[in-house]
Amino acid sequence: MGSEKCGFAVKALIVGGIIGALLIVILIPMSFSAVEYHQFGFVRQKSTGTVNTTKVYSGGKYFIGPDYEFKVFKADTQFITLDNVAVFTSDKLEVSITVFIQYSLRKDELPLLHKQFDLYYEEIVKNSAIDALKGAVPVYSTRQLILNRVQVQETINKAISERLGGICCRPGCPYNGSCESGCTPYERCADNQKGLFLDVKGTQLGKVVIPDDVENRFLRALILQEESAREELYQEAQVVRKETEKIVAQIRNDAQEIKQNATVLSEYIGTISKANYTATIESARAVGLKRLFSDLSITDQKYKSSFDYLRTLKDLSNIYLTVDFQQRIAGSFGSGSK
Q: Which residue ranges does the record assign to the Band domain (predicted)?
């Protein structure tokens, strides 16, 4: 009997060891749970559904036990499209606006998000963004929505960011210079000032749809504005043309005046030159005659006059002189034969 009991005990131990090993092999892999790189997670007990929000887990594998799993939230950027939201402008007209929003959850405030909204925050975020949009637009007129898109987008972005992200400074922002203007220091910020516990990364203003009759009035106003600008440019062009014509006429007058002055000056210089030429010739002639009469010993004024007369006749182009045996000098005047 003793040996049978010992054998039974050994068998029981062996079976127990096998079962324990099997349990270890089965339970250890079941004790590991993963959080994807694009997720945040809280540990949740499967049997009771209790969620432990004291620690937020990022992407990775964790040994948390077989009766536990991760309750996950999105850690990457999430997108909202507010499509054709009806809003009123300051001039009491209803327009439709489309806005695109990008946001992400705050890891450090995820317990607060879980406490208030659990996993059902997306619709709340969208409705809050619509409320912020409807509150921001009415300060602008319909014309401003069309003409001042950059300013309108900045106003919408500020309103949505404060509604979704709150008015609290982010932790550590004084040290890296990223604090929003006028934000409340984080250490003094209450939970109800933190918005919906997320960061708005950006908003873009999409299409703005206005009523047809208003659009037609705007188009007509723009057409009139362009026509007015065209007429103004046309008038300026006319003025420029007149000024150009005036300048051209002035330049031509100046050129004509310069030409006339040059002609008069040229004639004057020519007259002076001819006068000087004649004076020089006559002076030289007088000197030459005086020397000639002196060298030939001609003193009688009669002979001097005859010589000067003959020289003068010789220089005339329409005089032809001949000498015969009857007369010392014979000549014919005009263009006849010699």
A: 48-242
What are the residue ranges spanned by the domains of the chain? 2-74, 78-210, 228-297, 299-338
Backbone angles phi, psi at 199, to 5 degrees: -110, 125
pLDDT (mean) for 331-338:
46
Residue 187 phi, psi dihedral angles, 5° rounding: -70, -20
Reported pTM: 0.59
pLDDT tens digits for 201-256?
Answer: 999 999 988 877 766 766 777 788 888 888 888 889 999 999 999 999 999 998 98
Burial class (CB in 10 A: 0-12, 13-18, 19+), 90: middle
Q: DSSP secondary structure string, 82-124?
A: EEEEEEE-TTS-EEEEEEEEEEEE-GGGHHHHHHHHTT--HHH
Q: Report yes or no: 93 and 103 within 8 Å, Cβ to Cβ.
A: no
| 215: amino acid identity, one letter | E
For the sheet containing 39-45, what is the strand order?
51-57, 39-45, 68-74
C-alpha–C-alpha distance, residues 166 and 192, integer Å: 8
Measured distance CA(98)–CA(209) in Å, rounded: 9
Residue 333, SS3 per DSSP:
strand
* Residue matched to tokens 């050994």: 10
Residues 100 and 73 sit within 8 Å (Cβ to Cβ) = no
Closest CA to 82 of 132, 34, 33: 132
**How far, in Å, CA of 134 to CA of 84, rounded?**
12
Structure tokens that stand for 322 in this block: 């001949």
pLDDT digits (tens, 9 = 90+) for 77-110: 999 999 999 999 998 888 999 999 999 999 999 9
**CA proximity to 182, closest of 196, 161, 203:** 161
